[in-house]
Design brief:
By secondary structure, this protein is mainly beta. The protein has a single domain, classed as Jelly Rolls, CATH 2.60.120.10. Helices cover 6% and strands 42% of the residues. The protein is globular.
Amino acid sequence: MKLIKTKFKGLFLCEKETYLDNRGYFRELFVEKIIKNNFIFDVMSHSKKGVLRGLHFQTDNPQGKYITVLRGKVFDVAVDLRKKSKTYGKYFSTILSEKKNVSMFIPEGFAHGFYTLENNTIMLYKCTNYRNEKTENGLLWNDKDLNIKWPVKNPILSQKDKNAHSFEYIINNNKTY
């Protein structure tokens, strides 16, 4: 397993080995001694092509997330909401896929979202904290201040994501970390 640092403190990619033979493949997804975090909650999502989920975060009980694509391909985005960070208000994006076999660790204090590039995309999230519906928040995926270069103009969105807040609203209402 190889860790790849980014310019965002604490956010990194994890490149993993795939062992192929005539039966298929074998992969290690997570190694605790390398990814030193206490993950207490696992979730997964299944999405068809064209779905955009996010940008989600929790103001109380923030979650660090270790994201792995088990099937399919996504354009994945993390937005830094940590006020004292050098990258506050900036975003990191990457392509994650089953074929690429790279996972991403997003520390607490980020909003997270993704756009599915293939049908039947399955993602696994290992989280450092439980989901708390009462403190869930969302940033608008197409917020003009964030200016994220999504590979889509009209994604499939949930009603919750359509009603997400602007970055300016999040700042003015003290919803960052």
